[in-house]
Write a structure and sequence with these properties.
Elements: E1 4-6, H1 18-24, E2 29-33, E3 35-45, H2 53-64, E4 70-78, H3 81-84, H4 107-119, E5 124-131, E6 140-143, H5 148-155, E7 160-163, H6 171-175, E8 181-185, H7 192-207, E9 221-231, E10 237-238, E11 249-251, E12 268-272, E13 278-282, H8 289-292, E14 293-296, E15 299-302, E16 307-309, H9 315-320, E17 324-329
Parallel strand pairs: 1-2, 3-4, 3-5, 5-8, 6-7, 7-9, 10-11
Antiparallel strand pairs: 2-4, 6-8, 9-13, 9-17, 11-12, 12-15, 14-15, 16-17
């Protein structure tokens, strides 16, 4: 795979559909546009092919600036166009495009190496990676470095910020040593409100001259990701909240509505027939299941209070990635 780099907006990119994008512009590809300030904002979209808000926001932004100069240089990565054409996170013969940013032998990982080699030739102002959720979540930003400039960046998108250090193979982690870096979670894919929020955020960041070194962290709610709830790919799962279900797991039907709320100790999450198929994995890969959930009389019950995020009822995502994340409040800088 060779990286295509465009120095102008490719013809038709502003109006092309997600389904037609790959046929005309096979990705991943870069677009490097000049602006008033040389320090570039890096913007990545479609690292997950079914998370289309970033592309829609990019198209709206480019249309707005067709006849006027951008406030600063903008380097855009359009990611997994092939999966996007089929509405998939990634195809079966592909790696996850947001898990290949620490090197590797796959063609996709080597192409990402080309991306990083290119951007290191320039001074970067900030990095924004746009994603969507499959479950019901508020807008929030994710940082991998819990320092004032990074929190200032994330606060422009939401008053909720998640600090995480695992998985380490994500895009925002690769950019964190180079500049303030954030992953934004813009709600459900393609919703107009989420698209508009991303456009507004990108414009606000492009217009900034600098980030506040003394940003007050009390201006945002910072949560720390402790682990992920993993479900075996072999498991049968439903959301019927039934102890008589034939599935290995029968979770409560409103599970995703619990995101970013405090789940008290003793909260029922559903029913389980095979405890070996569920595990809470910590940031260092350790098994921390018993600290957060326990199985009693086939019931899945929280062992202590925690805050979930990205709880999903999408069966593909919960097996491919995780059921959701376990978080705690975090105040340190």
């Amino acid at each position: 795979m060779n990286l295509s780099i465009h120095k102008n907006v490719p013809e038709g990119l502003i109006d092309i559909t997600v389904q037609d994008l790959h046929a005309k512009y096979p990705g991943p590809f870069l677009v490097h546009l000049k602006g008033q300030k040389e320090e570039a904002l890096f913007l990545s979209v479609l690292l997950h092919g079914n998370e289309v808000t970033g592309l829609f926001a990019l198209q709206k932004l480019l249309k707005k600036y067709q006849d006027k100069e951008l406030p600063r240089d903008l380097i855009i990565l359009v990611g997994n166009t092939k999966a996007a054409a089929q509405g998939q996170r990634h195809l079966e013969d592909q790696p996850d495009y947001n898990r290949i940013w620490r090197g590797g032998d796959s063609p996709e990982a080597k192409l990402i190496d080309q991306v990083m080699a290119y951007v290191r030739e320039f001074k970067l102002f900030a990095n924004i990676d746009v994603h969507n959720n499959t479950g019901m979540n508020p807008y929030y930003g994710c940082v991998n470095v819990c320092k004032p400039k990074y929190l200032h960046l994330a606060s422009g998108f939401s008053d909720k910020t998640v600090y995480f250090t695992e998985p380490k193979e994500v895009e925002s982690m690769a950019f964190a040593p180079l500049c303030p870096s954030v992953t934004v979670e813009a709600g459900l894919p393609g919703k107009a409100e989420g698209v508009d929020r991303v456009v507004q955020f990108v414009e606000e960041i492009m217009a900034l001259d600098s980030f506040n070194e003394n940003f007050d962290p009390s201006k945002v709610n910072v949560f720390h990701t402790i682990g992920r709830i993993k479900i075996s790919k072999e498991a049968k799962v439903d959301f019927l909240n039934s102890k008589d279900s034939d599935s290995d797991f029968s979770f409560i039907g409103n599970l995703e509505t619990k995101n970013f709320s405090f789940l008290p100790q003793g909260t029922l999450l559903g029913f389980c027939k095979n405890p070996s198929l569920i595990k809470v994995v910590g940031n260092n890969g350790e098994d921390i299941t018993e600290h957060f959930i326990r199985i009693e009389n086939n019931q899945i019950i929280t062992s202590k209070m925690f805050i979930p995020s990205m709880f999903t009822q999408d069966l593909y995502i919960l097996k491919e990635d995780c059921l959701g994340y376990v978080m705690e409040e975090y105040f340190a800088i």
